[in-house]
Structure formats: C-alpha cells, structure tokens
Amino acid sequence: MWTVRNLVNQIDTLFSGGADAPGHYQSLTRNIIITMLVVTILPLTVMGVLNHFQYGRHLRGELITPLASSAGKAKHSFELFFEERLSTVRFIANAYEYEDLLDDHTLNRLLRVLKTELGGFVDLAIINADGDMVNYAGPYNLKGKSYTSQRSFQEVLIKGSYISTVFMGHRKIPHLVVAVQRYSDEETNWIIRATIDTDRFYKLLGTIGLSPQSDAFLVNSDNILQTHSTYYGKTLEPCRLDIPTGSQNTLITEATDAKGRQLLLACSGFGNADYTLVIATPRSVVMRSWYALKSDALLVYAVSLLIIIFMVIKMAGALVKRIKESDERREIALTELQHTQKLSSIGRLAAGVAHEINNPLAIINEKAGLMEDLVAAGEDFSQKERFSQLTAHIITSVSRCKTITHRLLGFARKLDTVMEPLHINHILKETFGFLEREALYRQIEVRLSLDPNLPTISSDRGQLQQVFLNLLTNAFAAVEDGGVVSLTSAPGPEEGLLVTVKDNGCGMSEEVSKRIFDPFFSTKKENGTGLGLSISYGIIHKLGGSITLATQPGEGTQFTVTLPQNPPTDTQGSPEP
Amino acid sequence: MPYKPHVLVVDDEKEFADTLAKRLGLRDFKTAVAYSGQEALTLIDKTNIDLVILDVLMPGMDGCDTLAHIKASHPLIQVLMLTGEATVERAIAGMKAGALDFLMKPCDIEMISEKLLGAFKLKSEHEAKIKEAEVNNIISRKGW
C-alpha cells in the first residue's frame, strides 16, 4: 500500500510545494493545467485510437465482403460458361463416330446448330492422332494443316480436354480454343477442336454491376490481359497491375496503379482454365463511408480537444487567481491581527509599568515636598535659595512623569464609550476650532471640504474629537509655516463615511510609517509621548472603523479614517486586554 | 490654640505614609499613620480620628473593605480615597460607599490640605448639627 500512499503524496506536493516561492502561483497554474490536460486528453486519445482501429477493421470487413462476393459470383459464371462449352464439345465427341464427323455435311450442320443454340462458336475441326486436321467447318480452309507442334494438341493428348487462353486468330479477333480427345473403338485417338470468340466475356463481366471508377477483366497466369481493361491495357497486352494469380479462392489485395490510385483488387482464379478474374476498385470508392466517419470523428476529437484545453486553462487561471486572492486576504488579516495584538500587549505592559512607577513617584513627590517644607520653615542658611530651586525642579519633573504615567494608564484603560447620533462635520469644525489660532499665527492654509449631505452616524463625540485633534496636530507639526492642510469628509463604504487629513509637510519614510501606530514611537523627540496615534488607532478600531495612512517623504502624509454608520455592538474591544 | 484636625494616613508604602503625615503635621494637622487596613481600624477605635486618607490598593484588607468598616463603626469620620489612575473605578466605587473624595497619586500637598480642611469643615458642621439636635431633644424632653 505504501506505493499508493507515495503516489498520493507526490500528487499533493505537485499542488502545494513551495508555497512561499516567488513563482509559486505560476508553477501551480502550470501543474494544474498539465495534470488536468493529461487526465482528460490521454483517455480521450486512447479511446479514439482504439475505436479507430477497431471500427476500421470491422467496417473494412463489411465493405470488402461484397466486393469479394461479386468477384466470386462472376468467376462462377465464367466457370459455368467454360464448362458448358466443354460439355457441348465433349458431347459431340461422344455422340458421333470419327467416321461420321469426317463428313463435311455433318460437321457444318453441327457448327450451325452450335452457333444458333449456344452462340460464340467460330469453327469446328477434327484432328487425327498424327496431328493433322482431317476435317474442318468454319470460315477458313484449314484442312490438312498439321497441329502437332501446337500447345493445344500436346495438352489435350495429356489431359483429355483443354481450354486455351485467348489468342489472336486469323481474322485478328481474340479467340480461345476448346479441345476434347476421343478414343475410337479401334483404339486410335482423335481430337475435336472448337474455336470460340470472346464476346461473351464482356457480357458476363457486364453483369457484375460495377461503379464507373472500377474495372473488371481477366488475366492468365503470365499476367497477360485476356479481355480489354478500361484502365490497365488491351487484350493480350501485359497487365499494368501486379496480379496475384494461381489461387482458386477469392483474394483481396491492395495495389497502387500507375496514376498513384490506391486500389483494392479482388482476384479469383478459375478451376477449369488458366484464367483469373480481377475486379479493381479504387480504395476511396469502397472506403468512402469509412473516410467520412473518420473525418467526422477527427473533427469531433479536434473540437473537444480545443474546448478542453480552453476550459482547463481558463479554469486553472480562475482557480489560482481565487487562491491567490484568498492568500493575500489572509496575509492582510494576519498582519492586522498581529498589529492589534502587539498594540494590546504593549498597552498592557505599559499600564503595568506605569502603575508600578506611580508609587515610588508618589514617594519622591512627598519627600521632595517635605524637603521644600522643611527648608521653607527652617532658618535661613547660605544655600537656602538653591535648595528650594532644586526641590521645585524635582517636583516639576515628578509632575511630568505623572502626566506620562497617567496617559499610559489612560491608553490601556477601558473607556466607556458614549454613543450618540452626530454629524461628523460638526465635530470636524469644532476640532478645527481648537487649532484655528495656530493656523492663523503660522499662516497655514486649512482647506475644509466637507460633504454637507453626509448621514448622521452613531459614535462617541469626545473620542472622535480626540482622534481628529491628534491627526490635525500632527499635520500642523509636519508642515512648515504657510503649508497646506486639508480636511475632507466624504461618504465611505457600506453607508459609513470617510475623513481624510492631508498635509503637504515633510512626510515620512517607509520605516517610520510602519511603526507610526506603535506606542512610544515618536518623531517629535521630547515633545511627544508617542502615544497619540496609538491611542487614536485604538479608539477608531473600537468604534468599528479603520485608520490608514499614505505617505511620501518630502511630499506629505494623508491619514484616512473610515467610520461605520453604526458602531459594533461590542465597543469595549481592543486594545483593552 | 485652635483645634487641629486629627488625620490618619493609611498606606502600605511606609515611606509615602510617613512623609505625607510629616508634611501634613507641618500644616496644622495632627497626624497618625497606619500601614494596613487592620492597623487603621484599631487606631480609629483607640484614638479620636477626624479624617482618614485611605489608599485604595493595599495588600490584605484593601481600601474599599477598610472604608466599609470605618463607615460602619464611625460614620462621622470623613474618608478621602488615594488612588492611581488604574484604580479610579474602585475609587469611584468607594465614593459611592461613602468616601468624600478621591485624590490621584502622586498628589500636590496643597490640594490635599485644601480637601482635608473642606472635609473637616463638613464634619464639624455635621457634628454641630447633631449636637444642636441633641440639645433640642434634651430641651424638649425636659419640658422647660
């Protein structure tokens, strides 16, 4: 089983490997596409190829069988034709005595009857055992001619009967010869020989019923054409095709003719004569339906291939895009969470430290106060003035420390938020009122662009004032005298609203902007506690909004605050532990 | 010689309690010091205390418990709660339970003495009213 598990694991790594690598999503897309293409196209292709061969074999059988059967039937007709002629000649040989046939009259009558009843007979001849023609009926006067050297004579002596191949007769017409040997009572043999013209061949070939591109003809074992062929030569010329002769069964072979046409040849040899019937049909004619089917199947295959590839690429792309988006969302959410947690834990730590420091601070305060009291009450001494100055300094420093610790504790404290319906524009104007004097004094141009059609929202007035006062103070600190600070309110997402505080001041580096909401992070050195933005961040989050910044060193900073129309039900959220 | 209000400072920070007591002593108060709630209660029982400055956060019996005891046994004693920012809620709870005011640590001595004097004045008026009521009561009973 471990091999199966291995395989499964390997497939898993194909889709999950190197999640942090830079090219992860590309390689994921590639892997998905390749895998999906392989698992869809491979079976389809295998199926198609198997079907092609299986169906092809089957269909070819279906298409070729009729060809073979018509070749077989035609051959049978030819055999019957030859047999009939041979039987007739044999019948004459047996029915008449040698002496009867030597009579011209009888032989001429027989020829006449044969011509009318059977047709195709040209002449009749009687040849004696020495090979001399002793009687003849027909158009030529061949009487007395010796046939000793002729092949038909030799063959008939050996076999008793003979059917020749086609030859050119005296009239330059293709003929063939049928000869039968007969033994007389006196133990001498004689031969009756009939010549038949080949007109009947064409009649028989015509009955096969072939398509126009096809051809049917006869050849002998030397591949010499015995009939005219439409495409492959004339009678007694060598056939231009390579015909396998000699088999008496019907044989289907393939050949290519001089024009390059693919042919199917149905060849069938005769049992009683040296002939082979050939039906030559162009492959394309026979296999037309198969080719049509094949091209249809190929078209379907190609179209489905295109659809599959298109869909797979599309889907893989969409899938990976979704994965990428959700990864990014998760990343952002995680960063946000970390930030909130960091703020929360720093806040808790700060509160603890502040509380612990408060007690010794109180003691220092009291001790210094006592010193002051004692000095004031005691008699004059040389350094009395300096002493009271020193104690006064200690007390001022303690009160500075006190401010810090109290703000720290305030930062971590659970503030009771008081929700009331309010117009954000009122708050912004009010808050800006605190700074109007400074703006005038420093000649800072404040651009207020407040959307008058904003809905009332439910939020905490005091805390919002604190936030915007903080943001505006920061903006004022960032700009030079004569700078521009713009304060904008606009409708925000989901029926909430959007407030931006923008300055054209010094801006900040990425390093600084990353830490700007961290507690105790300050760019104002001694003039700030580094808690303002951190507290603002906490407040806005508690009110269900968000605060973001965009900044460019030297060009300015823009803080964007979004606020929901209604605060979340749990307003006692972060950063309180 | 005018009467000096008798103030008891209760804080587990010995240094703080002692120093504060000493400073108040320099400002026309008679002072006593206790370093725990328990100690404070015994001291109150034994001596004549007018005002108590009570730290909220103490080990053992804390400010609120001590306040409850004081108010139960000596309702006329005025109590000022002393607190850090983190325990403001508890100080407020203390005020609801009968404390007069609360002070934030570290605190300004002048403010403390001001508040103490206010508290003492309140207490004196209160006592005067009680005395007057008692006198009236006696007079009405005697039927003169």
Q: Could you explain the architecture of this structure?
A:
- The complex is a heterodimer of chains A (577) and B (144).
- With 577 residues, chain A is α+β, with helices and mostly antiparallel strands.
- Chain A is built from 13 helices and 17 strands.
- Chain A has four domains: 25-54 and 293-340; 79-197, Beta-Lactamase; 202-289, Beta-Lactamase (2-Layer Sandwich), CATH 3.30.450; 414-563, Histidine kinase-like ATPase, C-terminal domain (Heat Shock Protein 90, 2-Layer Sandwich).
- Helices cover 52% and strands 18% of the residues of chain A.
- Residues 571-577 of chain A have low confidence and may be disordered.
- Chain B has helices at 14-25, 37-46, 63-73, 88-96, 109-142; strands at 6-10, 30-34, 51-55, 78-83, 101-104.
- Chain B has one domain: Rossmann fold.
- Chain B is built from five helices and five strands, in the order E-H-E-H-E-H-E-H-E-H.
- Chain B has a five-stranded parallel sheet, sandwiched between helices.
- The A-B interface holds A 351, 354-355, 358-359, 361-367, 369-370, 373-374, 377, 398-399, 402, 405-406, 409-410, 412-413 and B 13, 15-16, 19-20, 22-23, 26-27, 84-86, 88, 104-107, 109.
Strands, helices and their partners?
The complex is a heterodimer of chains A (577) and B (144).
Chain A: H1 2-16, H2 24-95, H3 98-101, H4 104-117, E1 121-127, E2 133-137, H5 151-159, E3 161-163, E4 167-168, E5 174-183, E6 189-197, H6 199-206, E7 215-219, E8 250-256, E9 262-269, E10 276-282, H7 283-286, H8 288-377, H9 384-412, E11 420-422, H10 424-442, E12 445-450, E13 457-459, H11 461-478, E14 484-491, E15 497-503, H12 510-515, H13 532-542, E16 546-552, E17 556-563
Chain B: E1 6-10, H1 14-25, E2 30-34, H2 37-46, E3 51-55, H3 63-73, E4 78-83, H4 88-96, E5 101-104, H5 109-142
Parallel strand pairs in B: 1-2, 1-3, 3-4, 4-5
Helix pairs in contact in B: 2-3
